[in-house]
């Protein structure tokens, strides 16, 4: 068997021209969509930090958390960001871990399912990437694991703490942070008797994600409206993952534009 050839790439020499985005959360950020033809088309100005810590041209799957990693929002997000400014290169830092609850996204926390330390790994990979580029934003899609009465009741507090921790530990106090809401196809589940049950906890998680806009600076959220699952009532299909990626990009561009206006006013 021939060794797999990586499409390794060199980032721009000037750090400000290499714009980095950290991708964190659980499986719907990591991606579980089944690849389609358009998902195999790369953009030479969108790179990803691979599992070995090297930069390469981004192709699906972006993530490597589990063997089932598929199409997520990351590549569509990167392509949309690259399209807005042809003078820069986008660097994606994939760090999402399928099944991870928000409780393991803190220093020292160990996630048995993948035998990893999600938060510590993300910080280490982000710092490695920042040696070559500039961190411009963080996107987060998580909450499925916390869609239970206990987890949903403290989700707003936990997410607020997580955002502050990322900003502190990466020495980027004002970096934009965008969270994604859970899709409606997760709201209704069938119980053991086949009866439809509404998961009120998932709705509470979404409410928390939206309400943080009132209390957390440089924060936005995107909805998962009009998305479809891949057939399991849990994961986005490829088209929906791409849609979420474009929504993340639109929200990120909005926050970055707002930040530029603020800087201009203070000069």
Automatic annotation (TrEMBL):
<dbReference type="InterPro" id="IPR036514">
    <property type="entry name" value="SGNH_hydro_sf"/>
</dbReference>
<dbReference type="InterPro" id="IPR005181">
    <property type="entry name" value="SASA"/>
</dbReference>
<dbReference type="Pfam" id="PF03629">
    <property type="entry name" value="SASA"/>
</dbReference>
<keyword id="KW-0378">Hydrolase</keyword>
<protein>
    <recommendedName>
        <fullName>Sialate O-acetylesterase domain-containing protein</fullName>
    </recommendedName>
</protein>
<dbReference type="InterPro" id="IPR052940">
    <property type="entry name" value="Carb_Esterase_6"/>
</dbReference>
<feature type="domain" description="Sialate O-acetylesterase">
    <location>
        <begin position="18"/>
        <end position="253"/>
    </location>
</feature>
<dbReference type="GO" id="GO:0016788">
    <property type="term" value="F:hydrolase activity, acting on ester bonds"/>
</dbReference>
């Amino acid at each position: 068997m021939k060794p797999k050839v990586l499409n390794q790439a060199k980032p721009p020499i000037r750090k400000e021209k290499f714009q980095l985005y950290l991708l964190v959360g659980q499986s719907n950020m990591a991606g579980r969509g089944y690849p389609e033809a358009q998902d195999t088309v790369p953009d030479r100005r969108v790179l990803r930090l691979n599992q070995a810590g090297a930069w390469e041209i981004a192709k699906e799957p972006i993530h490597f958390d589990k063997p089932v990693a598929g199409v997520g929002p990351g590549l569509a997000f990167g392509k949309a960001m690259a399209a807005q400014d042809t003078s820069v290169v986008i660097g994606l830092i994939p760090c999402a871990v399928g099944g991870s609850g928000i409780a393991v996204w803190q220093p020292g926390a160990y996630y048995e399912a993948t035998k990893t330390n999600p938060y510590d790994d993300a910080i280490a990979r982000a710092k490695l990437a920042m040696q070559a580029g500039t961190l411009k934003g963080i996107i987060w899609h998580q909450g499925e694991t916390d869609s239970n009465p206990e987890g949903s009741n403290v989700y707003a507090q936990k997410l607020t703490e997580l955002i502050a921790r990322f900003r502190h530990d990466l020495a980027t106090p004002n970096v934009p942070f965008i969270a994604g809401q859970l899709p409606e196809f997760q709201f209704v589940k069938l119980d053991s008797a086949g009866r439809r049950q509404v998961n009120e906890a998932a709705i509470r998680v979404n409410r928390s994600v939206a309400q943080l806009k009132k209390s957390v600076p440089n924060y936005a959220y995107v909805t998962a409206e009009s998305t479809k699952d891949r057939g399991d009532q849990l994961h986005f299909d490829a088209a929906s993952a791409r849609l979420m990626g474009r929504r993340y990009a639109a929200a990120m561009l909005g926050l970055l534009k707002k930040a530029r206006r603020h800087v201009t006013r203070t000069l």
